[in-house]
Amino acid sequence: MTNQKTAFPKGFLWGGATAANQLEGAYLEDGKGLSVADAMPGGKQRFQILGSETFNWEIDESKYVYPNHRGIDHYHRYKEDIALFAKMGFNCYRFSIAWARIFPKGDETTPNEAGLKFYDQVIDECLKHGIEPVITISHYEIPLHLAKEYGGWKNRQLIDFFETYAKTVLTRYGKKVKYWMTFNEINSAFHFPALSQGMVKATGGRDYQNIFQAWHNQFVASAKAVKIGHEINPDMQIGCMIIYATTYSIDANPINQAETMIQNQEFNFYCTDAQVRGVYPSYQQRMFEKYGVKALDIAEEDLELMKEYPVDYIGFSYYMSTAVNVTTEEDDNVAGNLLGGVRNPFLEASEWGWQIDPEGLRIGLNELYDRYQKPLFIVENGLGAIDKVDENFYVEDDYRIDYLRRHIEAMSEAVKDGVDLMGYTPWGCIDLVSASTGEMSKRYGFIYVDLDDEGNGTMNRYEKKSFHWYKKVIETNGQDLN
């Protein structure tokens, strides 16, 4: 397939993606408050610690390290980093605003001007280089105060706090920034609500009643952001953002096929149905019965808001597919992006056990577009790997190039299938702190950052082999993938 001509439209958005909490650092600088990400310890046990009975968002530096506090110092080096993105030819860059930079506790009514000025500078730097900003309003970093004092998104008060925050940033940047997303990987809460909903075991994070209530509150908040954005600038495009994992039955057994359908509904479609269609799906009541969810706290105007202000496009991450088997006792489970599944014998896996499936991306693009008929935007995709540098800090990352090439080929096939695909921003375009482990050793970037898991290194930036390959991909609008 490599030598076939690809089929990306003129004006296709090519770029890369990051998140404020994973690269900015400066975690208390210029009036910024603490976020939930600042309270997440680093290391391979991060998710186990966050999911424990006793974790309650307290920061204990005598016991843990917190790599997000320092990130890769993008807060002070954003000009250098954006210049490198421009050198690669990016025409868009997906990043997030740190809510706690704008409202340090989250429940204030007056924003922190220093935080607003920082993003003025980042946006202007992007535009200076001809790079279209694509901004996530809330990316796994709600203010820690909202998690500790209000219990996270299960509390309806967060709708008003988010509305104030969204109105502030959409008003401030809405004339310069066309593309926005409300909540990063909103459906991730189905498996792990600590990140996107700010809820842990101690604050009800294992109770599906709270998870579904928190989702409802986020759906309403998202609709309010869409309303605000369209009033500020009718051309503004505001999307949702989900994890999408193409899901297969392990075999033709109808029992596995039915379970695959159910898992698709629960994980891939529930949040998207609510945000894209603007109404709750027909299978909702059966889900509620399965998970012991009683009637939600829904205000009279909530459903009308959701219906009137659905999102304009679907942003999603795609790293892997998953397989379903409920008919045998075999325990052959594999890891994944907040979800696993059984091992698919037809696929290889990354060093972290994520099953690599480019053809699954084409399938997923078709599934999403057929279901919703709204533009799609792949805002995360990539290969986390341990990179080896030579004496000049050069990384020969052919494995990353191969991964991305195969996924771009699959994207091209989906476009030929008739899918309306807006753009592609591979994850972690510059090496940054991993969300799952808080480590630097799991690297995704086209740019190597000299920093190890213990915090040692110069933080200098170096172009990898994939940097020059991706530059050529962008220059040719996806035609040259060799």
TrEMBL record:
Keywords of this protein's UniProt record, alphabetized?
Glycosidase, Hydrolase
GO molecular function, a single term: beta-glucosidase activity
Instruction: Provide the GO biological process annotations.
Output: carbohydrate catabolic process
Q: Which residues form the active site?
A: E380
Q: Which PROSITE patterns match?
A: GLYCOSYL_HYDROL_F1_1, GLYCOSYL_HYDROL_F1_2
Any one cellular-component term (Gene Ontology): cytosol
Q: Name the protein family.
A: Belongs to the glycosyl hydrolase 1 family.
UniProt name for this protein: 6-phospho-beta-glucosidase
This chain's source organism reads: Enterococcus rivorum
